[in-house]
């Protein structure tokens, strides 16, 4: 074997979680298509060389037995047959158009568009959606982050970043960054706060997680009772002058009403009900109230449990009451190339309630951030309502496995008149499709995400391909472009002039593109497609997928000229946008796109009146009900609370399917407290039957004193099928959504209560 030289290291990023750490890889194997060595990329401006344990397993994603290499069509016997691309594109376009023309494009739903590492392809789906008149869409954000997105928009007018690198108090709520990362350089950042006597790490989690073990204050809340714990903390702050009243008066509206409400919180009673000792509530309130900079990070432990939306609102008060917005070490509003959360809201009436917000067609559910609540999708299909969804396009997502109640989702997908799935592998959802379209892996094409949430220096990482695409695949932008063409949206030659100018010079292209679009609105309406087919061919081979970024760079440079200039891109007219785009296109380890100033009021208070709307009537009303709220008792036959899907050192949603990657002793285990295990008669590695009102699965037990008594936890992303050595498909581990129910969801935004599933466990 020849020794690899240092020059063989190629920069890219890890696609296993939203941190997208910059990495360097070496290729090897018989055909040079295996990722054989991996290390952190120190040149990456955000991750700076950091990775977690999972990154070493990336080749299980790149190379596996389920990769697709041809479009598949379901034949009359219900089996898949290979078809060529022209046939697949033509037939798919015809079928969608016929549904559009007969029932209306709003009966076709778009789901997905990208996972943890790939958002570029989904950006081009906008043109297909436009061509079909698709109105409703959704993705996994509508089963976790829509509550947060809603309250953030209402209160702050945008989305925020917690400066955990510099804060003196970090509050981590329902998140275990030690295992789930997401936060940049998570383990280093958590350890730094933990080690520093002048900084305080507060962790709210029923479980003694690895992160909780680092905490100065671990609030071991009873599951599902976060809202009382957080109210008690805020109540104690208000009742003991631990709030920054000058800041609130100067920068917020409605604070009198909110402070009055919190002044009435029976702190001791709430503390007791939440399971957290009163002294710890006091200690937490004092740490937050006396801090210069407070950073809050919430995640699934609170977002997938009862009162989740109210919790998200109260979690923002944790940094707002001490006035910790718009400063170093605090919380800052972010601007990125493209926001994953749209700021569309209804109308806020004179009484403070939102009305005329968008809703879903059948159940009338609130649509936040343009996303139909995931838990409502089956009900929007399995009905004879005339406005039901009749067809779907699923791209880079596995909803038949990842959304609540897989069995109902299977029924719903089977009831559709037409389902097309775009993926790199055969998935549980693809199995149910009429057509499956294969895409190259994220290491075989230009790829990027819009998870650029950093502040004050924000970055963008366009990854270059490491190898040629797998034969038989087409990148998503090409698939979408061909669908648009099969639907006859543009005339032959309609884009020829723009194509010609693009070949000459990108500066002229900008002038020409914006001039032409004022007379031809179609160019803007189909902007991803138009850029892909005009500017795309003028970019380096394969980089046509980056064409849409050019449009985003131009917009970003127009809307944030100072931030872009501070990052080094300037000049008149379209020059700054052009320079920014060139830097992103040519950069291989991530590119700095903007530099902001801490505390710039124009950006920190984006709402129209320049103030934070501390009061949010819907939430204040719900807060008022807590004093009289009775927890619904657990049913006698389901005495345990199951967290259905937690992050472990070997889970990555469903991105890696080959079970060989599961390295630790028993990564598929159901964790249970020793007392409960003893009562049920279970020991380590015992097999048990786990049952909820929706179903039963077999699990292997791990007894763990990290678990709070009365609670059990199952890892996420398992229960995937994969061919064994003989080619027989076997399932490893339990699929959590065989156990979850659609109706157990947040009343505001429909997010599931996966962390609060009543369950029973029996020895087998
Ligand atoms: N290893 C790994 N990392 C991942 C992923 C992965 O699949 N595997 N997925 C990525 C994705 S998509 C996401 S969204 C993030 C999610 O990241 P996290 O939110 O950190 O993930 P979880 O482990 O599901 O849940 C976090 C914590 O919630 C706690 N919890 C359970 N019930 C409650 C409760 O009632 N209250 C509170 N306060 N806490 C509770 C659990 O004990 C657990 O420690 O992870 C990302 N990173
Ligand atoms: N019970 C329970 N359910 C959960 C969770 C839980 O904690 N408990 N967690 C939830 C959370 S937070 C999330 S984010 C969701 C995630 O669930 P999904 O949004 O469904 O995402 P993934 O499981 O990451 O699946 C991504 C799909 O993209 C495919 N893919 C990878 N690369 C490419 C590519 O380049 N192109 C295309 N077209 N496809 C590609 C993969 O093969 C995979 O099928 O799961 C949710 N489900
Ligand atoms: S933190 Fe996330 S992106 Fe970084 S190496 Fe780990 S899984 Fe990959
Ligand atoms: Mo997620």
Describe what you observe in this structure.
This protein is α/β, with parallel strands linked by helices and 764 residues long. It folds into four domains: 9-62, Phosphorylase Kinase, domain 1 (2-Layer Sandwich), CATH 3.30.200.210; 72-134 and 355-449 and 457-595, Rossmann fold (3-Layer(aba) Sandwich), CATH 3.40.50.740; 146-339, Dimethylsulfoxide Reductase, domain 2, CATH 3.40.228.10; 632-763, Beta Barrel (Barwin-like endoglucanases), CATH 2.40.40.20. Helices cover 32% and strands 17% of the residues. The structure holds ligand MGD (2 copies), iron/sulfur cluster and molybdenum atom. One ligand MGD is lined by residues 17, 54, 144, 173-176, 179-182, 204-207, 209, 221, 223-224, 226, 299-302, 305, 643, 645-648, 651-653, 716-717, 755.
């Amino acid at each position: 074997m020849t020794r690899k030289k240092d020059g063989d290291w190629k920069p890219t990023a890890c696609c296993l979680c939203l941190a997208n750490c910059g990495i360097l890889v070496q290729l090897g194997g018989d055909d040079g298509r295996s990722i054989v060595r991996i290390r952190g990329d120190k040149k990456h401006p955000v991750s700076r060389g950091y990775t977690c344990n999972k990154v070493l397993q990336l080749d299980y994603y790149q190379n596996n037995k389920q990769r697709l290499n041809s479009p598949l069509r379901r034949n009359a016997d219900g089996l898949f047959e290979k078809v060529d691309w022209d046939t697949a594109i033509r037939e798919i376009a015809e079928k969608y158009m016929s549904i559009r023309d007969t029932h209306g494009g709003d009966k076709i739903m778009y789901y997905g568009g990208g996972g943890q590492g790939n958002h570029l392809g989904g950006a081009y789906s906008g043109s297909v959606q436009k061509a079909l008149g698709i109105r409703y869409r959704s993705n996994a954000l509508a089963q976790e982050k829509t509550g947060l997105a809603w309250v953030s928009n209402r209160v702050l007018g945008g989305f925020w970043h917690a400066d955990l690198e510099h804060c003196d108090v970090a509050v981590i709520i329902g998140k275990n960054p030690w295992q789930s990362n997401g936060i940049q350089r998570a383990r280093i950042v958590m350890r730094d706060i933990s080690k520093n006597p002048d900084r305080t790490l507060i962790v709210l989690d029923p479980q003694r997680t690895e992160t909780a073990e680092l905490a100065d204050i671990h609030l071991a809340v009873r599951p599902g009772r976060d809202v009382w714990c957080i109210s008690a903390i805020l109540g104690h702050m208000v009742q003991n002058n631990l709030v920054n009243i000058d800041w609130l008066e100067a920068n917020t509206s409605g604070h009198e009403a909110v402070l009055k409400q919190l002044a009435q919180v029976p702190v001791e009673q709430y503390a007791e009900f939440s399971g957290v000792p009163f002294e710890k509530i006091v200690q937490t309130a004092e740490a937050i109230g006396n801090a210069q900079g407070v950073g809050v990070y919430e995640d699934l432990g609170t977002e997938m449990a009862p009162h989740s939306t109210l919790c998200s609102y109260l979690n923002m008060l944790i940094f707002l009451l001490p006035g910790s917005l718009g400063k170093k070490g605090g919380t800052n509003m972010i601007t990125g190339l493209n926001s994953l959360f749209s700021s569309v809201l209804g109308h806020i009436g004179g009484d403070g309630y939102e009305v005329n917000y968008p809703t879903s067609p059948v159940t009338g559910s609130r649509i936040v951030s343009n996303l139909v609540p995931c838990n409502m999708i089956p009900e929007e299909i399995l009905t004879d309502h005339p406005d039901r969804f009749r067809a779907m396009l699923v791209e880079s997502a596995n909803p038949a496995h990842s959304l609540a109640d897989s069995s109902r989702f299977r029924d719903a997908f089977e009831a559709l008149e037409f389902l097309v799935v775009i993926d790199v592998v055969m998935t549980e959802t693809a199995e149910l499709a009429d057509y499956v379209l294969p895409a190259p892996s994220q290491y075989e094409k230009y790829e990027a995400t819009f998870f650029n949430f950093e502040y004050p220096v924000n970055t963008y990482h366009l990854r270059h391909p490491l190898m040629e695409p797998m034969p038989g695949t087409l990148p998503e932008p090409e698939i979408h472009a061909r669908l648009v063409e099969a639907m006859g949206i543009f005339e032959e030659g309609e884009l020829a002039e723009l194509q010609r100018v693009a070949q000459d010079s990108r500066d002229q292209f900008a002038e020409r593109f914006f001039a032409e679009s004022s007379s031809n609105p179609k160019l803007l309406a189909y902007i991803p497609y138009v850029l892909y087919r005009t500017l795309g061919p003028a970019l380096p081979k394969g980089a046509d997928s980056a064409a849409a970024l050019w449009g985003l760079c131009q917009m970003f440079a127009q809307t944030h000229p100072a931030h872009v200039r501070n990052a080094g891109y300037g000049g008149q007219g379209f020059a700054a946008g052009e320079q920014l785009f060139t830097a992103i296109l040519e950069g291989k380890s991530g590119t700095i796109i903007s530099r902001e100033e801490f505390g710039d009021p124009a950006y920190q208070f984006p709402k129209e009146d320049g103030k934070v709307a501390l009061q949010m009537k819907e939430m204040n009303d719900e807060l008022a009900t807590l004093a009289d709220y009775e927890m619904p008792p657990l049913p006698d036959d389901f005495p345990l609370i199951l967290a259905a899907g937690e992050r472990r050192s070997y889970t990555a949603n469903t991105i890696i399917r080959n079970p060989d990657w599961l390295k630790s002793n028993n990564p598929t285990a159901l964790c249970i407290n020793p007392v409960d295990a003893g009562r049920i008669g279970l020991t380590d590695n015992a097999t048990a039957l786990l049952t909820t009102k929706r179903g039963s699965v077999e699990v292997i037990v791990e007894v763990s004193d990290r678990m709070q008594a009365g609670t059990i936890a199952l890892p996420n992303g398992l229960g995937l099928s994969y061919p064994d050595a003989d080619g027989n498909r076997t399932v490893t581990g339990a699929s959590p959504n065989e156990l979850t129910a659609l109706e157990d969801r947040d009343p505001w935004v429909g997010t599931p209560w996966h962390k609060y599933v009543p369950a029973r466990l029996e020895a087998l």
